[in-house]
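Review form for a predicted model. The reviewer records the input and the model, then writes brief findings.
Reviewer: anonymous (R2)
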Amino acid sequence: MASESRGSTQVLCCTVGGFCFGALVAGLNAVSAAHPALVVLSQVLGVGWSWAGLGILVGALARRRPAVAAVGTLLPAVVGYYLVDLRNGVYTHHDRDHPVYDIDPTQAPVVTSWDGLIGDTTFWGAAALLLGLVLGPVGAWTTRSGRSGLLCRLVVPVGAAVEIFVLRLPFELQLQPRPVVVATMAAVGSIGLVVAAVLCLHHARLEPGCRRSPPSTRQDGSPVVPLH
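Model under review:
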């Protein structure tokens, strides 16, 4: 009975938390132009590595079935994101097929692009399903002490650095660079590299082969006799 109650609580937390995360990201994207701080938050939360990090975090915190928990979080996040986008008018536009549009587009009736909304939600919902099945177990393995645990812990910082320096930052620089966006990207990517390096160094110091062996002689030159 207690295990069923904990399972229901986990499902509720994943669903509500995921939906709120997606709604928050979409809301930040809509109002980010109002203040530089909102631009920073949007660039941190509204990118691929942070969504992957959400799935990994949920997998690490889940008491059981980390894959199901990650999927149960990412899917509501996708739904919440696109519902807020719909509310903010991302999928509404003036009807280009209306005769008045060629004369004055602002006088044409406003229509909702349901095909675009359903298509985007379906695509990213499928991505959340597939990636959640992987990210959840990755999160559960982050607590392991071996190399497999280290690799799982490196997914988010290395993924952030690769996404920033390989994909997003070069694309931003090709257009009209926005100073706040460029600075945020550079900072996030650099922090990802630093975190990855710290994790690797910490793991190397804990490896059995990297630990210092006890000295064989004392400072006065007498041998150290091991205790049995």
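Findings: The radius of gyration is 25 Å.
Further findings: The chain has a mean pLDDT of 87.
Recommendation: see findings above.
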